[in-house]
Amino acid sequence: MQMFTMMIQMKMSKKIIQLSLSILMLKMMMMSTNEFFSSISMGMGNDKLSQMMMLLTVIISNLMTLTMKEKFVIFLNSTMLTILSIMFMSMKMISFYIMFELSLIPMIIMILGWGYQPERMIAGLYLLFYTMTASLPLLLSIMFIYNQLNSEMFTIKYENKTMNLMNMSINIAFLVKMPMFMLHFWLPSAHVQAPIFGSMILAGILLKIGGFGIMRFSTILENSFLSMSTIWYSLSISGTIIISLICMMQGDMKSLIAYSSISHMSMCLMSMLTMTKTGFSGGLLMMIAHGLCSSGMFCLSNMSYERTLSRSMFINKGMMSFMPSNTKMWFLISCLNMGCPPSINFFSEITIMMSMMSFWKTSFLFMIFISLIVSYYSFFLFSYTQHGQHSTNYAFSNNNIKEMNLMTYHIYPMIMMSMIM
């Protein structure tokens, strides 16, 4: 009887949290914000960038609640939502940095506590030391700016000379978080070992912190960002192509989706490095589109994992005959991942291509090649997992209502946002 009562309380608490997050999401959608900070109070403010990132955070957190079964995990989700909300609305660099580092703790607890294999210990250490080591120069740069200008607000300008060392110190923390090619080694291991709700928040929100930080600090150190953007731009283009080719050689579904996240976030980085309004708009659209699309792909891979107890693409073959109701979702999310219209992914790639051509005219050739490779490995993932002979052909399974709702809530916003634009 006591166990039954606890289960009812658990379901009620999830319903209350989901209702609260839905009301918060509607309230943020109806808020009118300016390009510059508004609703300023106690060192916190709101603008278009923070509003969109907050909206994405609430949507992903609401969807994560559907996959959770324990009260402590729901508490971690609420803690992460609070930390990220403070970080996105912060107008002070030091409070931004504190929340930037604090968001690491719930993520590591999720990986270590609910990960799949013993290798989750290594994945947690990778995530911890990569982020801590790379973010120390960011703290020193914030202290230097405060010492020079006696202010730590994001509204200041520091343009007395180009400071390439400071640019590298600031960028390295955010490039690890995005992550950029050569700084990405922690991401595949963290994604593979993380539970489904850990992968959702990691792909949906935490990777976007890097792009958000670059947008914020680029307005302060505009000249140094412009002088160094060519170097980061070249590394991003070459890294996107290499990572896209690596995606074609993966045999693990979660690993392939994790590497595709690196490819898409490198495209987002290329757009932001142009330092134009079009580039920032394309980068923001790509972050929102990838946050929903990548989270949905991880949900689909977890649905297959719960039935077959394997992430291997060699075992998860012929899922069309095993889970026919899931094939439509795989097809839709694969089309959205490769940027098919009508979706926000398509408009984000078009905007990114426009900004890249304004920065370097011949870069559209690389973008066309990147789009082709992205389309190839998305089609490869769908065709390899859904077609062919299933290894356990005698069994049959279908999605339940909760899983269908979870995928619908991922796909619906991506299409509806493109209609609003």
From TrEMBL:
UniProt keyword terms in alphabetical order: Electron transport, Membrane, Mitochondrion, NAD, Respiratory chain, Translocase, Transmembrane, Transmembrane helix, Transport, Ubiquinone
Family as reported in the entry's similarity comment: Belongs to the complex I subunit 4 family.
Function field: Core subunit of the mitochondrial membrane respiratory chain NADH dehydrogenase (Complex I) that is believed to belong to the minimal assembly required for catalysis. Complex I functions in the transfer of electrons from NADH to the respiratory chain. The immediate electron acceptor for the enzyme is believed to be ubiquinone. Core subunit of the mitochondrial membrane respiratory chain NADH dehydrogenase (Complex I) which catalyzes electron transfer from NADH through the respiratory chain, using ubiquinone as an electron acceptor. Essential for the catalytic activity and assembly of complex I.
GO molecular function: NADH dehydrogenase (ubiquinone) activity; NADH dehydrogenase activity; ubiquinone binding
Enzyme's top EC category: translocase
Species of the source: Ledra auditura
Domain NADH:quinone oxidoreductase/Mrp antiporter transmembrane, first and last residues per copy: 90-370
Name by which UniProt lists this protein: NADH-ubiquinone oxidoreductase chain 4
Catalytic activity: a ubiquinone + NADH + 5 H(+)(in) = a ubiquinol + NAD(+) + 4 H(+)(out)
Keyword flag Magnesium: no
Membrane topology summary: Multi-pass membrane protein
